[in-house]
Amino acid sequence: MRRGHNETVRASTWLRRLLLPISLSHCLIVSGATADTRTFLETHCFDCHDADTKKGSLDLTSLAYDPNNRDSVAKWIRIHDRVEHGEMPPPKKKERPPQAQVKSFLTGLNAQLTTDDLARITRDGRALQRRLNSYEYENALRDLLHAPWLNVRGKLPNDGEAFGYNKASAALDLSHVQIVRYMAVAEEAMGQMLARQVDARPPSKLTRYYAREQRGLQRPDGVGKSDFGLRADRSVVPLLGLTLQMDVVNGKAPYTVGAANPEVREQEAYAQVSRGVGTFTPEWTGIRIPADGNYRLRLSGYTLTLGAEANGKTNFKQISKGRRNEPVEVFAHTGELNSEVRRIGATADLTPEPGVHELGTVFLKRGEVLITDPMRFYRTFLPKPEKRNPLREGDTVPAVAFRWIEVEGPLPEENTDAGYRALFGDLPFKKVSANQPGYDLPGSGAPRKGGGRRQAAYQESLTELPPQEGPRIEVISAQPKQDAERLMRAFMQQAYRRPVQDADVRGMVKLVEDELAQGSSFIASMIQGYTAVLTSPEFLYIEEPVGPLDDHALASRLAFFLWNSPPDATLRARAAKGELHQPNVLRAETERLLADAKSERFVSAFLDYWLDLRKRLDSPPSESLYLDYFLDDQLDESAFRESRLFFADLIQRDLPARNLVDSDFTYLNERLAKHYGIPGVEGIAMRRAPIPPDSPRGGFLTQAAVLKVTSNGTTTSPVIRGKWMNERMMGIEIPPPPPSVPAIEPDIRGATTLREQLAKHRADTSCAACHVKIDPPGFALESFDVMGAFRENYRALSDAKPPVPGFGYNGNPFSHHIGPVVDATGQFPDGTPFKDIHGFKQHLVKQEPAIARNLTRHLVTYATGAPVTYSDRAKVEQIIAASANKQYGLRTLIHGIVQSELFKNK
Fold first, then answer.
1. Which residues share a beta bridge with 30?
2. Handedness of CA 240, 242, 248, 253 (dihedral sign)
């Protein structure tokens, strides 16, 4: 394929179009807003906050007020708020200012702050122009190209963070290098879509793959040894029903009877007692997914009980019926060494009675193999004599047996050529040879070869699935210039989120014509033009004029809020008719977007930043202190899904905001329910479940995912969790500590607790003002460990004390011992005491307007790309007041935000 212009030159040209000139307004410096303000400060504040004392590193005598400086304004807002809340002057101060003086001070400062903030908004708008973040850009490509399977976000420039989210201009810069990356991603996305749509899809068929016929399941570890040795738990063993087939183990019989004996073949199975890890990864290598697409899966298997000897060995000869169901999840991956194991959402609970389990419809990629993973079982790496199966009960251990998997697909899809038609309409295409004009589409190569038995087995299984070279195609056009103009106009009308101007079309068509003039093929020229569209300011940037949003901008804001992607055809049609500013129409569209499956994008993206769930893998549990969680990805995934399902349910049912702090239900499966100590939940599927009255669970505060992201995997900190809870759940900003104050490090030896260290910390007056807010939630949440389990004692490491008995998820013995007792008592800033997390929640849940206010502020920031500023506060209070009769229901709050002036104005 020829390229008409050097990529670097094109990127530089487009970059100049993207970056707007910046004008700096003059700074207005006011040492004191009014005479009353300065008099109040001199009388009641300067004695603690002058140049000599500077308590809290604040010198009010030299503090300037600059309405154009965000930091300056933020300091004066903090002064206003602390005086308004009675925190300053300090309550313990003997001479308190008369209320009349306080009111006069607040009135004057409020007027100044409000006037200046409104002037700034009138001049610049609340939100500044910004580019799409990586989530939004990927979703935009998926929707535009009708390719929901596209996965290109990891190749895009990293998003920054401002005001807690990746939605603000300050977090989304754009450089010359990044433009080149956007161009490459856009072209790659179109190539992937075309490659999938122009090739003839193989016909859908139903195939049963028998476990005993899979090379990736025919494990030699232990086979041929009558006692299996220490590596037995890293083996799969052949069974016929509940009988171990020793003739197969000893190599005296083939691994399967095959098609020659259908009845026996149906009963053949393999069993395992541990999960795959490292080189032990049982794979269904014969499945050979022929093409990208949706497939329907079914699994046949059952559960077993095996013997366990005193030395820890599993006795595979002692087999009986399973005693319980076992959760199984099916994963997909390419089989390459160190390749990603992909979660596809296929789960089942195997039962003691052999059965067939529907795994549902999943998306699979060409060349992938499947892995059946018993999620409750332990993972054993190198075999060691001291290792034990942590699920051992008496002289038995659980096991699972797999018989076969059925794969049906690729299933027929509607509008399989919708992406092609979005680019080339009704023009036909043809495949051409390498020396003819055309465009090379990406292929689907077989995995690279690697060393080791597992890799060799995988390569052998793919002998009938050779590398698939990408075709070279040309789109047939009898009138290239006319077709280019027609196709480009249609594409831009779908890509741009506002009416397309003739000048816009002419500019892009000129790029195509230049490519054609230099000898490029029609398809290659159009791809270059489309790449320009997908990296143009109109596509890449969210552009909103200062003042009220027009209907097209309002449609974009609504879609990027609730779908994290551009508006669809219905929303665009409403905007084109000028209907979106009608409250009833805007409400109806809000309801439609919330009811659509794409609203899961909003739930996911919002929680990723509000609750920091995107960081859930940043702090794995310590292998020394928390061996019972180490490698337990089922627990981690279940906790993550709980938070998303819970929040989605609050929106769906319009439940009161107090549920964010405490609720009588959550979403659980068996693994997470066991972690929480909640009985009566069985199976791997997540479901809505009631919380017992005596349980500390309910609300985000005590969810495992939240408690994990607020720890470091080794220890918990009342300071970190307390600060997080104040800022994320109550909207109370905690400033960073003074530079002179050292950080507090937890003592994992168990000699002292953080609470004891904090008692000394609070003696410093510069620390006490913040810790009176930080410590109450921090202490209450000390009842939960790094993975959110309830605890009465800390864990500690010390050679002087024996470790607790038990074995971890990798079979190693525990190395921790019981540490100091957890003290979860405390008192709120108003002096109200609490004994534990129950008392803390009971007090907090009474502050429902504050909970709703905080959530509203976060949602406004996420939806508009700008934080709630001082003059916005009154509008937020209007939203809160209007939702009070619905108990501050989350859906009601979202509607209130969408209908507000905050949302409908730049």
1. 65
2. negative
